[in-house]
Structure formats: C-alpha cells, structure tokens
Amino acid sequence: MSDPTRGKVGAFDRRAWSRLLLGSVGLPALSVLVAIVIGAVMMVLMGFDPRQAYAALWQGAFGNVIQISETLKTATPLLLCGLGISFAFQAGAFNIGAVGQMYAGALAAVIVGGLFPNMPAPLHIGLSTLAAFVAGGLWALAPALLKVYSGANEIISTILLNYIGIYLVDYMISGPIKIGEHRDAPTSWPVADSAVYPKLIPHTQLHLGLLIALAAMVVLFVVMRYTTLGHRVRIVGQNPVAARHAGIRSDRVFLLAFFFSGSLAGLAGASEILGYMTHLISGFAPNTGYDAIAVALLGGFEPFVVGLAALFFAGLQTGAIAMEAVARLPAQLVGMIRVLAILAVLAASSPRIVELANRSRLAKPELPAASPPPPVPAVETPEIP
Amino acid sequence: MKARKLTQLLLMATIGMVIFVACAPAPAAAPATSAPAANTAAPAATTAPAAKKYKVAMVTSGPTNDQGWNYDALRGIQAIRDKLGWEMAYSENVPAAQQENVLRQYAQQNYDLIFAHGYEWGDALKAVAKDFPNVMFAQINATTQGSNIVGTSFKYGELGYFTGMAAGLMTKNNKIGVVAAQDAPQVTADTDTMKTGAKAVNPNADVNVSFVGSWDDVVKGGQVAQAQIDRGVDVLIIMGNAFTPPAIKLAQDKGIKVIAGWTIEAYPLAPNTIVTSGIQDIPDVYLNTAQQLQDGKLKGNTTNVFGWKEKAQYLGHWGDFVPQSVQDAVQKAEAAYLAGTLDIGVK
User: Fold this and answer.
1) pLDDT higher for B22 or A178?
2) Is pTM beyond 0.80 here?
3) Which chain B residues are within 8 Å of A331, Cβ to Cβ?
4) Measured between CA atoms, how close is A13 to chain B, in angstroms?
5) Span A182-210, mean pLDDT?
C-alpha cells in the first residue's frame, strides 16, 4: 500500500477498494482461519479439546480489562521496535539490531532513571525516555556509518551489535550499576519512583509506554506520507542513485533513518524498564527485537498495519499463557499453534512483501550479493481481482 | 474470477472448520490429562480431609527438562500429586513480561497453592498475590513478604559442616580445595562451616575457598577447579550448578577425590571419585510446603527454612572407596547434631 498510486485512493474505484479489502483483511483472516483449523487438528490428534483451548486463548488475550491490558503492555515494545524496523526498511535497510538498540535504550533509561532521585516526575520521565531515545539511536548509527562509509553489510553488523548490547547490559548490572543490597542474580539499581511511567488503568500493568508507542505510530505515518523527509527516505530506499541525482543527500537521509529506527527501539527498552520492570536484569527481553522483525513484515512496513500486527502478536503471546495454564496444553504445542497463526498471516501477506523486497533489491544494483531474496519477475506481484 | 474462487475457498474452509469443531471428540478428561486421578487415594494422605480436592500449580522461567533446577520443580509438584493426591498444573519457560499474567491465570482458577520457582518471581508475586487473598503463593529460595506469600530457604551451613568433616577425614596431605559459586551469604555460610567441620576432625586440615562468580559458567568453573588442583589439593569440594559435572570430570582425570553439591546426587557420575554429595532436596521442600497447607499450618509473611531435621538436606551416596570408619564418624556426628548434642555453628 506504500505504492506511488496512493493519489488514486481518493477517487471512487470499486476495484481498488475490493482489492484493498481482500488484500489486507480478507486474505489474512482466511489464513488465520486455516491456521485455526490446522491447530485444531493437531490438538485433537494429541487428545486436547480445541474449543476449550481457543476459548482460553481468547480469554487470555482479550477476556477482560486486565487481560487486554496485559496484551497491550506486551504489544507496546513490539510496536515500537516494529515501527523502527519499518522506517529503516523504507530507507532501504534491514535493521536486525532492534535487540541491541532496545538493550542500549533500557540501559540508558535505568541509568538516568536511577540517578537524580529527587527530580520532579514529568522532568525525570522525560529525561530518562530521551536518554533511551538517544542511546538507541546512537547504537543504530554505528552500523549505519559502517554501511555508508565502508559498505559493511548492515544485516551482519546490526546482529553483531545485538550481542555487544546484551553483554554490555550483563556487565553493567553485575558491576557499575549493580544494586546495593544482595540479590541472587545480577540486578541493576532500581529506577526512582519519579521516573516510573504512570499507569493508564489502575491495578493493571498498562502504562504510559503504550501512548508513546501510539504517538510514534501516528508521527511515523505522518512523516512518511506528508513530509519531505518521508518522501526523501522513500526515494533513497527505492533508488539511492536516482535520489542522489535528484539532489538528495542519500547518505545523510540513510543515517537519519537508521538513527530514528534505533531510537524507536531504544524507546521500547525504556518503556519496558520505566513502564513496569523498574530494574534491569540479564536477558530482560531476549526475543522482543527479533519478534518485531516479523511484526514489521506482517504489517507490510505500514505504521498502522504494524500496529495491528503488534496487537496480533501480543494477543497470541498472552493468550498462549492461558492456553497452557487454563486448557493445560503442553508448552510445546502452544508454541506450535502460536507460530502457525503467525506463519499463516505472513504467508497471506507475502506477495506484498515480495513486491517490496523486490523493489528495494532492484533499486540497489551495487549490492547484488547482499540481498537474500531471489530475483522475482515482475509478473509475480499478483493483483487479486 | 479469482475473487469468486477465493470466496468459494473461504466458504469451504469455514464449513470445514465448523464440521471439525463440531465433530471434535471433546475428550472429557482434557483438563486432567496431566493429572491422572489414579493417585487420589494415596496412602500418604492420612491427614487429608477426604472432601477437598486440592490443586497445585507451579511456574518457572526455564525448561523443566533441564535435569537440574527447573526439573526439580516439576519433580516437586509430581511428588505432591503422587503422595498427597493433589491435582497439578504447571507453566514452563515463562518470559519476564508474562510473569504476572501466568500467576493471575492460575489464581483465577482457584488453585490452592501456587509455587513460583526462584527469586526472579518476587515482584510479580507481590503484585498479583494481594488481589487473591484466598490463594497461597510459595516462592522457592526467596524471602518475598506478603500475607499470602510464603518463602522457602535452606538451612545454610549444615551441608558445609558435614561435607567439610568428610573432607577432613578423607584428605591425606591436609590440603582441601573448595570451588564455590558466588561470594554471597547463602554460599559463604556453608564454606565457613566447612572449615569448622574439617578442623573438628583434622586440626591440620587447610581449607582453601575460591569463587567462580557464577552458578553455571562452565569455562570459569573448570579454570577455578584447575587452579585448586594445581595447588596440590587431594580433596575438592565443588558446589555449583552447571559447572559441577565437568569440574568433577577434571578432578577424576587427576585422581582427586570430590565432594559435590548442592543439588544433584553425583555418585553415578564418578563412583570412583565421589566421596559423597551434599544434597538440597527441592522436591521435598515442595512436598513439605503442600503438606503444611493441607494441615492448615502454612502461614504467609514467613520464610520456612528446610534443613537436616526436615530431611531436605542430607548427604548422598558414599563412594565405593570411602572407608567404613569415615562413614560411621560422619553419621555419628549427624545423629548428635539432630539430637542437639553437637553444635555445628549454625543458628
């Protein structure tokens, strides 16, 4: 949907509308249905009642205010990281480093949040969040600079920086920012009360981070659609050479896009720590940054669709807990059903991804070996109707 | 054309699913699959009021097939099921972000007792427990406080004394090395009494303690063990988690005798090397806690300490080469300690 034909959407075009409806709602819904059926078959074969399991899945994900809050809380970092990955992708880069950027953000948040205990709350919250924003951005800037100035593949360098981020956190919490009192495992000092995000609903874990994520989603949408920066990012992503000829400083735009990509992941780290964890432990979010890649892909790199994808992911995650605890499915079966649903949606939306990946690949002839998707003829991008 | 085909497909899938769900043979015992009811009349449950069917749940952040710390948690609730006839359920591999969610799921289903396996559950327990005053929460190896939260811990120091004593009796050159995990109170309590225990039977024994800094760092554990071996010790006390088995192997290759601790029975690993094992019996802690709840004796805001008296700490199988006189001497001391006539310096 990020295609240049968006100008036509305003015009009444039945074909376009039905295509949109089928493409972004119909197909994924159908594929989830198929996944549900396959999951049910698996459950029956293993001797479980699928109705009970799916009832538990729904109850766990959206059953009541508390469960909805849990799901939204889980969706928050996925959304922020997913938005960051999408933004980098629009600029033609694969940012696999959301884990490291998130860890850097969390580290900055807990340092600033733990120091200055007597600061007024709004200022302290703002400062800690800003620190995470900058830290995540700088963490992403390193591979971006390597890419721009030495041509190093950003996929590899961002993955490597994930490990550095994880080990840096492990080092910091067992030394420089270790909590004073004894704990059984390395733990950072706690975040001061003045830096903890306020709760949105009392007696739940839903916190300010969700609003930050939603704001980021809207801002990213507006930036991509209605600003020169967004326009430039897209042009650079599609064809950096053409962008340069058009007078755009591609390198600078690329660096900027990567910085903001990382800073969104940094915000995800801040949101986890300042939102409800309040101190940093080893492996506090080992998979969020990787799950967010699937969230971004699932959302077709479009901010609002990424939001839906994050909600879908988070609902499956909180619901899976209930499937295990209430319907007594073994953890392994629950995991299979969860991934099956994701896989189904991903498969249904893959033509768009192939199209996007293909476009970005064709746009970068100087890097033929670095782009994994095989060349797909233009015919392969099917139009549904 | 394509759209029509798609609609057809969708229709077929829907029908298919409806048929499937309708025909699913609704296994009546689905929720009870992990809790065979065969043991309801377990003979051990003599004090149980027959009317109530108790339910226990356990949550852990790791995999229950790790043959170690998390496996012990599973064995714990299995013991409760088998010996007390309770119904059991558990969730493994729970990520940090889902801790409150999973605790709440079990609490909502009115489980009588919910075990959280490890210190990392403290914050989530505190947040959830206050919403469910009728559910009892137990946290293993932790001291979290709450009116319906009970902590458990081992009586640190006991194992140190008796393993130290065994080491003091076994050493020939009076050099004993200790490979300990972390320089933390619950570890040093045991390393301190090791010295008293060894000196009590062998005044010339020199007990040297070195720390790995982790429970699981296999590489560092091996290095620390090697450093002790290089010092020329002839008895090693190794108290860790993941690094224990490889460190035992290292000592075995050098012909050095080993006393292992604290979670596993190490005798099968190296019968010609293991003097004995110091064992902390987690399943026993689970069983004991459930029994207390059933007897109406389990109180919140407390930390229950488990030791020799509760049979939660004890020495394991003696190695084939250990002289009977050594075994007798240690067992005599154990009996004296239990009878209250021997002070081992543990309060």
Assistant:
1) A178
2) no
3) 91-93
4) 16
5) 87
Contact A30 B10 (CB under 8 A): yes
Q: How many C-alpha atoms does A176 have within 13 Å on its Cβ side?
A: 10
Q: Is B24 on the interface with A (CB under 8 A)?
A: yes
ipTM of the complex: 0.71
User: What is residue A25's predicted lDDT score, i.e. its pLDDT?
Assistant: 63
Based on the domain organization, do B167 and B273 belong to the same domain?
yes
Note down the domain range covering B202.
Answer: 158-280+317-339
Please answer yes or no on whether A281 and B105 come within 8 Å at the CB atom.
no
Partner residue facing A185 (CB), from B20, B104, B120: B120
- CATH code for the domain of B227: 3.40.50.2300
Model pLDDT, residue B216 = 76
A214-223, A303-312, B4-13, B192-201 — which is least confidently predicted? B4-13
Structural domains in chain B (count): 2
Interface contact A22, partner B, CB < 8 A: yes
Does some domain include residue B32? no
Domain identity same for B144 and B165: no
Give the minimum alpha-carbon distance from B21 to chain A in angstroms, rounded to a whole number: 7
pLDDT of residue B247: 92
Q: What is the C-alpha R_g of chain B?
A: 25
Say if residue A126's pLDDT is above 60: yes
Domain residues of chain A, as ranges? 75-307
In chain B, which among 36-75 make CB contacts under 8 A with chain A?
57
Q: Which amino acid is at A154?
A: E
| Residue of B20, B98, B105 lying closest to A326 (CB–CB) | B105
Are B142 and B240 in the same domain? no
Q: Do A18 and B98 touch (CB under 8 A)?
A: no
Which of left, alpha, beta for B235 (phi over 0: left; psi -120 to 50: alpha)?
beta
Answer positive or negative: Cα dihedral of B91, B95, B96, B99.
negative
Six-digit token pair at B21?
């769900």
Alpha helices in chain A (DSSP H): 14-21, 27-45, 50-62, 65-90, 98-114, 121-150, 154-174, 209-226, 228-238, 240-245, 250-272, 288-298, 303-325, 331-348, 350-362
User: Is B250 inside any structural domain?
Assistant: yes
B208 plus B273 within the same structural domain: yes
A contact test, residue of B2, B61, B101 with most A CBs within 10 A: B101
- pLDDT of A193: 92
Residues B289 and B334 in one domain: no
Residue B35 lies in a domain: no
Based on the fold, state whether residues B209 and B326 are members of the same structural domain: yes
- Chain-chain contact of A36 with B17 (C-beta, under 8 angstroms): yes
**CB–CB of B123 and A278 under 8 A?**
yes
pLDDT on residue A156: 93
Count CB neighbours of B143 within 10 A.
14
The model's pLDDT over A368-382, given as tens digits with 9 standing for 90+, comes to 444 444 444 444 444
**pLDDT value for B149:** 95
Query: Which residues of chain B have a pLDDT value below 50?
Result: 1-3, 6-7, 9-46, 48
CB proximity list for B269: less than 8 A, separation 6 or greater: B245, B248, B249, B260
If asked whether residues B247 and B179 sit together in one domain, one would say yes
Whether B311 is in a domain gets the answer no
Judged by CB atoms within 8 Å, which residues 129-158 of B form the interface with A?
A: 131, 141-142
Mutate to test the interface with B, among A21, A43, A70 (most CBs of B within 10 A): A70
HSE-up (13 A, CA, CB side) for residue A284: 31
Residue-level pLDDT at B50: 56
For residues B136 and B257, membership in a common domain is answered with no
The CA-based angle A178-A182-A186, given to 5 degrees, is 45
Facing A325 at nearest CB: one of B3, B100, B102: B102
Contacts of B282 (CB under 8 A, 6+ apart): B69, B72, B73, B75, B76, B140, B263
